[in-house]
Amino acid sequence: MDIEKLLVENKKKMDERIFSALPSSHDDPEIDNLYDMMLDYPSRKGKGIRGTLCLLSCKMLNGNPNLCLDTAVAIELFESWVLIHDDIEDGSDMRRGEQTLHLKHSIPLAINAGDALNNRMWEILLRNREALGEEVTFRIFGEFLHMINQTTEGQHIELSWNQSNRFDLDEESYYSMCKKKTAWYTCISPLRLGGIIAGADDGLLDSIQEFGIDMGLAFQIQDDLLNLIGDEKKYGKEIHGDIREGKRTLALIHAVKNCGPDLREKLKTAISRPRSEMTEEDVQLVLHMMNKCGSIDHARQKAREFARSARVKFDEVFSNVPESDEKQTIRDLIDFVVSRDK
User: Fold this and answer.
1) How far apart are CA 289 and CA 267, in angstroms?
2) pTM
């Protein structure tokens, strides 16, 4: 299966539903501007991995993926409004190859556009009542609420680390944060939502978490690596942005722990500077330390280990599910999250 081709096809399908659901114009020019802002991030080149996992899970478990489309679309809209807010919180300059929404329009307007997308996400989920009934729709709502709670808790942990300038973190702390911040909304909930719509039993749904965590960790570590050493044109975000923001990535945590005392103090001084004061020399110093301590190679190895573990656990969890194109494609997606370059 050509994963990138599948993602493009599914994203096109989801985008059509998104653009038909979101308002595109209004007689009031100010509201018309809001609608343009709401369409901005969904119109940019994303991968659609989360919505695709939802669709694949549903079909793999003998569900009708057409009944899953609105939920997959809502997952993609969730990502859009969360990224608008995330870019503000991180002070990011670029998202998907373009200027971030708050730099284009101002922070207050961008926050409001994110809030408006949040509202439309729930509106789209309500459509499930007609095709799936009240009970299943209520379960979908419950899964979304849990997913959002996990994501916001993880985001708070990461932002708090930066704000308090923590250097006493270990790798397990990082994995715990990523489980909340990334794994639930990237892997676990999309797969569970597909299963809920397919009518899977609770035991199977609960087991999804076992491999979804490892897949999500592999995804986040690879994302961190792309921010350090990726191609900005392909990656679509500011390269070295995580360093400038002082993010406690796996590579940084490893470097702090494994470089000598003198180098450690230089590293701490550089990474502690506010974004507005950090120089290119500071950024290159941090990168040099990470390379010198083998931290980038360590992170790459860990991403691959988590991906391998996710594949093993996936086969265990779904051992009683017949082989299908969808089942194999999810396996391939696990590999894709650590081989992707954007």
Assistant:
1) 7
2) 0.95
